[in-house]
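User: Can you help me understand a structure? I only have the sequence.
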Amino acid sequence: MKQHLGRQAGVQNVEVSLRDGKVDVTPKEDGRIDPAQLLKATYDSGVSVAELDMTVRGKIVKDASGNLALQAEPNQSFTIAPNELSKTLEPLVNSATAVTLRGQLYKKPAGKKKADTSVPLKLVVLEIQKKE
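Assistant: Let's start by predicting it. Here is the structure, written out as tokens:
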């Protein structure tokens, strides 16, 4: 699995902890990682994914559908799923304030064996780590 994920575009390093059942993926400094592609690559390597969490920094914007999104770089944004924490980000829409969020892009549904990678992933905000 480490080699499978390490071959994905934008990936600098992959650390696997069998004891914890966790995989840490570090992006290249200028790399763009597609979380849906990482999810698919993990399943393609024969490993089941329970959760896909990430820490990402960017600015809060509204996407074309009017939903909150985190603009991580000019070419990559993550639609934010509505929850209590995401509501506190509303005042930051289109401001110069950068935020660092810890969130979840995927959680395996009960009873399902494989992720549906055709469904767009939404970032569920778990923690607002920093506003600057």
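Now, to help you interpret it: The chain has two domains: 1-49, 52-108+117-132. The domain at 1-49 is CATH 3.30.70.100 (Alpha-Beta Plaits). Let me know which part you'd like to focus on.
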